Every structure is written in C-alpha cells, then in structure tokens.
Amino acid sequence: MSTIASIFKDKSTLKAADLKHRNTINHNIGKYNAVVPIGKSQFGDVHFAREKAKNLKWKALESLDINLEKFEVNFLKRGGKVIWAETVEQACEAVLKICREKHCKTLVKSKSMVTEEIHLNEFLANHNIESIESDLGEYIQQLDDEPPYHIVTPAMHKSKEDCARVFHEHLGTPLDLSPQELTLVAREKLREKYTQAEVGITGANFIIPETGSIAITENEGNARLSSAWPKTHIVITGIEKVLPNLQDLALFWPLLATYGTGQQVTVYNSIISGPRQPNEHDGPDEMYVILLDNGRTQILQDPVSRESLYCIRCGACLNACPVYKNIGGHSYGTTYSGPIGSVITPNLKDLGEWKHLSHASSLCGNCTEVCAVKINLHELLLYNRREAVRAGEGNMMEKIAWAAWQQGMLHRKLMNAGNSKIKNWMINKVFKGWTRHRADLAFPEKTFNQMWIEKQALESKAILS
Predict the structure, then answer these.
(1) Contact, 342 vs 381, CB < 8 A?
(2) Domains of the chain, earliest start first
(3) Whether pLDDT at 447 is above 90
(4) Residue 217 pairs with which residues in a beta bridge?
(5) Which residue, of 73, 158, 364, 442, has the greatest Cβ tally within 10 A?
(6) What is the DSSP letter of 118?
C-alpha cells in the first residue's frame, strides 16, 4: 500500500468517528437538500436538460482542439493574451512572470479550484507576493491555513462558532460575533485589499470560443471586483471548460446554480471578453487567460474516462456521497474530493499512488443519479479499478487473493470444499485486507449451491413418493 493510501485510510478512520464533524456536515448538506428541489422546479423536464447539457459537453470536447484555437483567435482580437500551460510549473511561472512585470506585491483572487490544483497561493508566497482569497469561504480557510473542504462551499465543515474562532484568532474580533457581523468584518478587510492589489486572478466556469469570452458565475461579487478593479486580470482555467456557443449559458448557468446551491440562478453572472476597450470606462488594462492542461489531455485520449471532463464543478456528487459525508473533504488528500475527485485524480496524477480513491465508494450510484450533466461516475470508478489491475498496480497479497477467488468462482467444487471454520480463518486471519477496517466475515455452514442441491433432492424425493 502506498504512503498516500495509508494516510487516506488513517484520516478517514479518524474523521468517520468524529460525531461533531458528522453533525455539522449533515446539517449543512440537509439545508442544501431542502432547496435543490426548488431550483429544479424551473425546468420543465430536468432530466432532458441534463441530457442536453451532457450532449453539448460531448460536442465541445470532441472538437476541443478546434474550439480552443477559435477561442484564442477571438480573444486576441479583443486585445487579450493567451498562455498555454501544459504543467503546473508552467502555469505558476507564467503568473509569476506577469506579477514581476507589474511589480505586484499584492493580488486578489476569487474562488478557483484550478488555482488550488496548482497550489498558486503557496507558490506566490514563496516569491514574496501576497495572494488574498476574496471568496468568504475561501478567505476563512486561508486564515485557518486549510485547503477548501468542498468544491462549492469551501468551509462547509465549519460551524458559525468555528468561523468566529478563526476570525478571533487571526483578526482579533470578539468570539461572539454573528455570521452577519463576521461577513462585515471580512468585507472591510477585503475591500482594502482590492484597492492595494496590482493583479486580480479568477478562474472560469466556462470558455466560449464563439466570442472569445470566459463566463463566471458567483454569489458574492468578489470575482467581478477581482477582475475589474486591478489593472491586470489573469484567468486560469482548465482546457475542458469549453462550451460550443454563447447561448448554451442559458442552460448551463441555471443547471450549475440548481445543482450547486439550489438556486435558480446565482447572483452575479459575468461574460468577460478581454481587457477594457477604448470606449469603456471600467475594467483592467490587460487581461491574460492561462489554459491549463495538467493531465487533461491524458484523460481526453481515453474514450471512456473522457466523460469525466464533462464535469461543471457543481459539487452535487459530493453532497450525495455517503463516503464523503462520513470522511470529509480533507481526507482525500487532493484538490478534488468526493466521487468526481476519486474519478479524475488517479488520471490527473499517478494511477499507482492514487488508485485507492477509486475504492472509496459504496458504488451506490447516487453520484451518477444527481450529476448535473449525467456523468456515469460509479461506472468510471469501476473502470479506474480495472485499469489499475491492468497496469499491474497492487501488492502481491492482493493479487494472490484475487487469483484464489477467481479459481474458486470458476470451480464449484473449490467453493464447496471445506467447512465454514476453515473459510472464516482464511478470510479473517490469513487475508487481512478486508477485516483491517471492517468486521469479520462469517461464512454459513453450507453454500447456496449445496443448499440448492439438497432442496432439489428433497423435492424430487417428495414427487417420487
């Protein structure tokens, strides 16, 4: 077992036993579950809407090379600049180069999972550049020196008392502040940073090749301030965020809002097509879009795994997953947690080191059931498991166990051989992989096959008599 897998199991074991954590998560996800049906009511046929969205993402990714080039051409026409980054290092170095050219000491950053993926804040801090998270949840997590817990709600695992503690410890505020008062404190601190920042960084929910635009959806307005107030705006986005046409936002924005937060549409929706134009009064002087690969083309070239790139980062699969709700977002040890994280992480990183995440699932299929774009997540988890076996990943004892199981399945006499005590001893004492984190297995005295044969014999005897 890899070190990463061992850490995952240790963290999961501790978090699953943390009843305070479980109560907080169940409370917050319960509020989410209460409002999602309201958001769904805006669709005449929500299943058709999801199917259509899936088909549109399929269309966009099947011609991804053409779409990205089209985006670059149209974005350049508006005075923007495009940087292609194949790796994390290239993306970070591109940001650093821009910041140095602008003599940047402070930058503001709106919520972006891609910047978490490349660990941008840590990288900039090592080069003496202050990077401030402007999303409230991300700001709380940054103050507490923790990564985001959830794709959409970064501080979901924190109660209002926890948030008050964080502000008290790092900003010196009273411990008894209400959520409204804490928000006002954050507003005051962040507004000052906006006026100081030389550079603003955002992600992009969607890339629109047709117009050379990026689309951002949010609830706080911090992305608008981060993109419009500083003189330089940098967008960092994964190459898979492409949509075929501008009009497709009319479907994807409501879907993302409904499945992300239960809203019919989020509060702020922005389409940005470059830096400030000659006839415009607001906006940055310069705008850069960094198109990040970082393993995405590796997923794209697999006709099965490619479906995982349809994800619009709504976080619905996390809220539905019984594993995520028990072990929490940080136990996964990676940027993307929950079912979608378990699917894409082994493909974005090293399969051997991260294959354990594909087993962090009950395979109940609830993630697939709630996915906004109908990604077959539980099937992709099984596919990852198969690919790991094909690649020869796994320890020797595991391979021996499966080889023995295969022979038993192929030969009925072997399955019927031995009594239950011998079988229990073999599974629970010799092959300890199952019982290390689970209760002992208890085999019955007779197999189903043996009982069936006896039943048929009795019935035949009764008929003859």
Answers:
(1) yes
(2) 42-294 (3.40.50.10420), 396-464 (no CATH)
(3) no
(4) 269
(5) 158
(6) T
How many whole angstroms separate alpha carbon 233 and alpha carbon 108?
Answer: 10
257-309 residue pLDDT tens: 999 999 999 999 999 999 999 989 889 999 999 999 999 999 999 999 999 99
Cα dihedral 382, 387, 393, 396, rounded to 10, equals 70
Instruction: Specify the pTM.
Output: 0.89
pLDDT in tens, 357-388: 999 999 999 999 999 999 999 999 999 999 99
Tens-place pLDDT, residues 125-152: 999 999 999 999 999 999 999 999 999 9
Cα gap 132→355, rounded to integer Å: 34
Distances (CA, A) of 367 to 78, 103, 219, 282, 434: 40, 45, 25, 42, 24
Identify whether the C-beta of residue 143 lies closer than 8 Å to the C-beta of residue 171: yes
The answer to whether the CB of 378 falls within 8 A of the CB of 307 is: no
Instruction: Compute the residue count for the chain.
Output: 465
Residue 145, CA distances (Å) to 46, 136, 148, 326 in order: 39, 14, 10, 22
Strand-pair category, 213-218 with 268-272: antiparallel
Residue 415 parent element (H or E): helix 412-416
Say how far apart CA 79 and CA 40 lie, in whole Å: 39
List the structure tokens of 190: 């962040």
